[in-house]
Fold this sequence. Notes:
Blueprint: H1 8-58, E1 65-66, E2 72-73, H2 78-84, E3 90-91, E4 94-96, E5 98-102, E6 108-117, E7 131-134, E8 150-151, E9 158-159, E10 162-163, E11 166-167, E12 201-204, H3 205-208, E13 220-230, E14 246-256
Antiparallel strand pairs: 1-2, 2-4, 3-4, 5-6, 6-13, 7-12, 8-11, 9-10, 13-14
Amino acid sequence: MSRVGITLIEVILAMLILATSLLPIFGLMTRTTKDSDATLTRAYAINYAKSVFSTVIDDIPFADIRHGSPAIIIGSSRNKAKALFPDAVSASGGIACNGIVKDSRGIYYRVFLKSEAIMDETDGYTNGEFYFSYYPNPEVESQPGWINLQINSHTSENTDNVPSMFSKTNPAGLKSPYRYFGDDVAAGRWGPAEEHAGNIIHVDQREISQPNPDGSFYLMQRLILQIRWNMDSAYYKQPDADKGRPVKLQIITYKANLD
């Protein structure tokens, strides 16, 4: 009488074959998990960066941001800086924009904001410096009563034989300061053609601002936000570590003095 069965060696071989076939699947699962972690951490960093810039740009006055590395938030905005940069230290009468935040998975992020003032170094307009430029108002605007011109886009009235989108109501004979030009050179421009050519006015920051407490002049700051973290589980709590899998997000924007 013969018996049919499976030997121990056959069982071991079957298990080895099964394990070998499952290795790629396990590798794929591990890679998918790592990719998911990377996506989640980057999403957290981007959302936090949006929160920082939203507050700094919209809710903190220009005068409360001292340029430096890190930037210093002073005045009534100090509490906002403490909320954005946990564990930030006091510096120069304000709060240094350098702190650490933690997400729900226990990964720590270094949040660092640097501010660079775009300075006006010399008196008067200097090529290469930050400045504002504009065309002067047409001379006809200095006429008494020019403001009484009323919009009338449905008329074919001409001003000095030039099609106009304004009708003259009072006083009689008043020239319209805004009119279309039919010639190719001035097509699409407003106002008398001779008042455009070569009349661009440049104004530097010193002419339209008061000096800062340190005597400098600037109306713009370049804001550089850097967020660092580490994707190696052994360095989750060490966002500044160069070992492991360090990751960095850097975003640049500008803030103007609109106060």
